[in-house]
Amino acid sequence: MQPHEPRPGEVSFRPILYVVAAPLSGGLDDGEPSYLTDTLPGGTFDEDLLPVLPGIWYAMHLPKNRFETLDLPLRGVQAGDSRYSKSHNIALVPDQLLRDVDFLRRLIGPHEPALIIATDRAMADAALAAASLDFSLPPVSVDEIDQALLDKHWGSLADRWAAEWPADAPALDRTPLRWSWPIDGDGSLLPLQRLRRLMGSPLTVLPNPKTPFGSAHELRFTWLRLNALVQMELDGISPDENAQRLPEEMRRQAALTRTPLTLGVSGTAPRYIRFASGVDGVSQSTFRDDYPDVRAILVGHAAVREDSTGVVLEDALTPAMFVALANLERGWAENASAAGVRKLLKRLDESAAPLWTEDLVQAIKVASRLDIYSNFPIGLLTLPGDQEPLAGRLPISYSPLNPLTRALQFELSPQHPTDLSSGLTILIAECIPGADPVGQISRKGWSTVEAEMSTQPHVHVTVAETLTPTAVRDAIERVHPDVLVLSAHGFHDTSLNVAGLIIGDTPSMGDDFGELPPLVILSACHTTPRGGGVVSVGDLLIRAGAKAVVTALVPVLVQHNSALTSRFLRYLALAIGEDASEPATNVLDVWHRAQSSNVVIDLTYGNERLRAWSFRRDGTKPSPIEQFMTSDHGVPLRVGHLYEDAEQRLIEIAKATGDDAKVRNWLRVPGYLPESLMYTLLGHPASLLLRT
Known about the structure:
The structure is a single chain. By secondary structure, the chain is α/β, with parallel strands linked by helices. Among the domains are: 1-180, no CATH class; 418-578, Response regulator (Rossmann fold); 607-668, no CATH class. The chain is built from 24 helices and 20 strands. The strands form 5 sheets. A 6-stranded mixed sheet has the order 11-10-12-16-18-19, with helices on both faces. Helix 6 (189-198) runs parallel beside helix 7 (216-234), helix 7 (216-234) packs across helix 8 (239-254) and helix 22 packs across helix 23. It starts with 15 loop residues before the first strand and ends with a strand.
């Protein structure tokens, strides 16, 4: 989507772009190949980028949009605007490209170029580029960065933009942030600085955190204070009464305030390291992944973009956790029983027990969602006190950390919101041959989806036979979808440590589909297993341009997969338009609603008799599954106890027909799998807006 088009009476400006030029010997596309059969680097990060890390961090201390140079009212600070890019747009480029003005012009595109930061060797090229392309500020060397320069740049940008504000705009605020280098690993310090500054009480002395949660507590306190002050203003409380009422209102806001939590959790699967070892003199003992500053930049950048709490947990993932995860994925693939899967999940939780500090547990309990930067699906772990994996508790999105160079480049690239509020075009690409029994079942499911969606005024569905990668590409070019559903078999090749798709009879890693739509749903088995650190098609589709990708960690039942995908598409359709009945406003929240409400399908697919009973109608009376979805029957589904409460609700429904004893037995024997929670959503799905 292009930057937001202003409505009548609105003020709108181009999003700001900062360029950081790195002394790379090659381009940024020289990273990890799709298949790990080629020569690998000796780690996950290109160390030629290390000299410009302070430059990236410096850009993140500058304004991310023009509005930050105004003395905004508290209600403006609180509300923000989801229609505009809220991130720092930082283009990380090889410094030799500073000589290519045509490339830079394409790179700038719809943005307002503000500043080039480079090393000393590229300053002459940076000066010529900045002058020819009308950058707001002259270029600076990484070695020049200090507090005085930051003060100067905030003032210069505020003054440059001042003449373009309307007469009734708020006063200018040239107050800078406080500069610090090296990064201390406090993921909440930068968002805390920015919020305090916007509220008119900037930090004058930076804290010296002793834990990863050093500024997180202060940031939450500041949000509670902001929300309390805004509420008292709305309630007409006079300034004289504010001080007296503030503590009470902050206590009330503590029960209401939920903010996103950006969580960086580092650690690499032993199998990934083994595949990276033994080439070019790299061994398991020399494999490098000790780049805490890079991960702190990732978390800090995301936390500022999402107005979230940021927490960086270095080396928190142990080899034992990846082994336990790999055992779970393998056991599931080998058709372990429901009891067997429960044991494997318990062992996974036991391996991760040291992760759950009191600070982390509390941070998750007050979070509205999790944006996780990690090579591990944290959502499979069970929060202490809960009875099912974290994925059932709150929305979770994932951004993998390996390879770290790719992760940094993707995070810094422009992340403008994508407005889907005018309607959805959905392409269901059927990639399984019709003679395949799985393909026959999936086609029936897609036919049902197509018929259901035909009644939705804001949605258009096309089902296409695409039995080659070229056919998938052609269908995408023909339909121009917003959502692509790839109905395919998945493969997990342990000899190559890769996981991808089978299109017809052709293996694909997704690099042959052409330009991708914002949302891709992989209706396929184990497309992104994490226990072995595989190179996965889900991650590569994000690299290829998708903003969000739904993937499965394990093999999934085709009927169950069809039910979950159908539910997701249905909720997406209900969230669009002025008459939307779905409360969620972005793709991440809709996905979580579909995933968590699908637990009843998990229950019913565990036993054929239970499934038959659940979907059977008695005359005109709704089926038990319809009753389950339309009323809580005195058993609301509690966060952290979804499966327990879903079981009890089914039993309550069964009591009306005297079937409760049978239902209890069917739920126990042979049991059921928590299949709905074995999916992950990659990328930035919260930036896909269904209503603005």
